[in-house]
């Protein structure tokens, strides 16, 4: 088993932060585009939330696949 070091923990936390920021940016873009398309505020918010959830889910799936090859 590999030893957990501070560098690995920092790398994981920074990667998670970047993924969350990217998901927030994608959600904001989706909400803005939905609103510009004429959607109501609740509908635009639902599209933004769905986009955020999709990006987080995709990042989790990619991380789980990569974990099998890297460890």
Essential attributes:
71 residues; mainly alpha; 0% strand
Mean pLDDT: 94
Poorly predicted residue ranges = none
Largest sheet properties? none
Shape: elongated
Order of helices and strands: HH
Number of domains: 1
The total strand number stands at 0
Number of helices: 2
- Fraction of residues in helices? over 70%
Question: What portion of residues belong to β-strands?
Answer: under 5%
* CA(first)-CA(last) distance: 9 Å
Structural class assignment: mainly alpha
Task: Give Rg in angstroms.
Answer: 16 Å
Summarize the helices and strands and which ones pair or pack.
Layout lengths: L5 H31 L4 H30 L1
Helix pairs in contact: 1-2
Question: How would you describe this protein?
Answer:
The protein has one domain. The termini are close together. It is elongated, with a radius of gyration of 16 Å. The longest helix has 31 residues, at 6-36. It has 71 residues and is mostly helical. The mean pLDDT is 94. It has helices at residues 6-36, 41-70.
Task: Write a brief caption for the model.
This protein is an all-alpha fold. It has 2 helices and no strands.
């Amino acid at each position: 088993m590999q030893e957990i070091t501070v560098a690995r923990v920092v790398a994981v936390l920074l990667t998670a932060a970047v993924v969350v920021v990217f998901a927030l940016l994608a959600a904001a873009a989706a909400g803005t585009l939905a609103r510009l398309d004429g959607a109501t505020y609740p509908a635009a918010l639902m599209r933004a939330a769905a986009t955020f959830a999709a990006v987080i889910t995709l990042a989790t799936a990619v991380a789980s696949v990569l974990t099998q090859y890297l460890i």
